[in-house]
Amino acid sequence: MRLDKFLKVSRIIKRRSVAKEIADKDRIQINGKPAKSSTQVKVGDELEIRFGNKTMIAKVEDLRDTTKKDEASELYSILEEKYNN
Fold this sequence. Notes:
Layout: H1 3-9, H2 16-24, E1 28-30, E2 33-34, E3 46-51, E4 54-60, E5 76-83
Antiparallel strand pairs: 1-2, 1-3, 3-4, 4-5
Helix pairs in contact: 1-2
Protein name: RQC P-site tRNA stabilizing factor
InterPro entries: RqcP (IPR025490), S4_RNA-bd (IPR002942), S4_RNA-bd_sf (IPR036986)
GO molecular function: ribosomal large subunit binding; rRNA binding; tRNA binding
C-alpha cells in the first residue's frame, strides 16, 4: 500500500493530499530511510513522521483499504512521541 494512502486510512493524517505533501517534503522516514508518498508500506515497518514541533514514531500493524473511524487505530501502534523545541 502507498504511504500516503496508509496515512489517510489509518487517520494519522486526515487527508491524502496533505499526507502526500508532507512525504514529498522529506518529513517522513520508513525504517530510517527517507520516503516519498508513493513508497510502499508493509506490516512491521516503522514510520517516523515530523509534524511541526512533534515527531511521532509508529509501527505498521495491519493494512486495509478502508476502515471505520474506531478501527483506524488498530492499523498502527505508537512507539514514541517527541516534542521538539
